[in-house]
Specification:
Blueprint lengths: L4 E7 L5 H14 L4 E5 L5 H11 L8 H25 L3 E5 L2 H11 L4 H12 L6 E6 L2 H10 L13 H17 L4 E5 L4 H15 L2
Parallel strand pairs: 1-3, 1-4, 2-3, 4-5
Length: about 210
């Protein structure tokens, strides 16, 4: 029986998820909450190995369906090994990306179909969906500009896609928000980071009452 609370962060490249997730952790822990941070694809050894294959810049021949299946496989192992046990122990799990990424990137931007990609992932995740998803909405060009300026960030295969791909990803997220309005909250990530974090904290206070 799940005792914890599952929060996911979503958004395009450069939206600040990996930075902001640490601010959220600090905020929740200051309120006495038990928090686990993780990411997708990755979070545990097997899923990190799959991540390295997916994001390797040399793997330019990767088929869209192969990509979707690899994400789903990594997701399943990550859930079994880390997310579900943490939730059962009463932790708030903060995850950088989850199933909505697959729907936006592979389902919409790759043209595989959101429903089709969701069916692949239903096999992987069963009935486990996030309790809350924070969607960091950002102009794709701003996101790519941020990545270009961040010298400490490794450029991966998805970063090398043309701007139209990233525009389509954003459109895909808009479709996903329409599918799950009850759990997805849009956050304006074009703002400076302090305002983004403040907006998120207000949402968390309301949702975790």
């Amino acid at each position: 029986m799940k005792k914890g609370y599952f929060v996911t962060l979503e958004g395009g490249e450069g939206s600040g998820k990996s930075t902001i997730i640490n601010y959220i952790k600090d905020f929740l822990e200051s309120d006495g909450k038990k928090v686990v941070i993780t990411r997708e694809p990755g979070g545990i050894d097997i899923a990190e190995q799959i991540r390295s294959v997916i994001l390797d810049k040399k793997n330019t021949k990767m088929d869209g369906r192969t990509e979707a299946l690899l994400y789903a496989a990594a997701r399943r192992q990550h859930l079994v090994e880390k997310v579900i046990p943490s939730l059962n122990e009463g932790y708030i799990v903060l995850c950088d990306r989850f199933v909505d990424s697959s729907l936006a990137y592979q389902g919409y931007a790759r043209g595989l179909g959101i429903k089709e990609v969701f069916s692949i992932n239903k096999f992987a995740i069963g009935d486990l969906m996030p309790d809350l998803t924070l969607y960091l909405d950002l102009d794709p060009q701003i996101g790519l500009n941020r990545i270009a300026k961040n010298k400490g960030r490794e450029i991966n295969r998805l970063d090398l896609e043309e701007i139209n791909f990233h525009i389509n990803v954003r459109e895909g997220y808009e479709e996903v928000v329409k599918m799950f309005p009850e759990r997805m909250v849009r956050i304006d990530a074009n703002q400076e980071i302090g305002k983004v974090v403040s907006d998120i904290n207000k949402v968390l206070i309301e949702k975790l009452k």
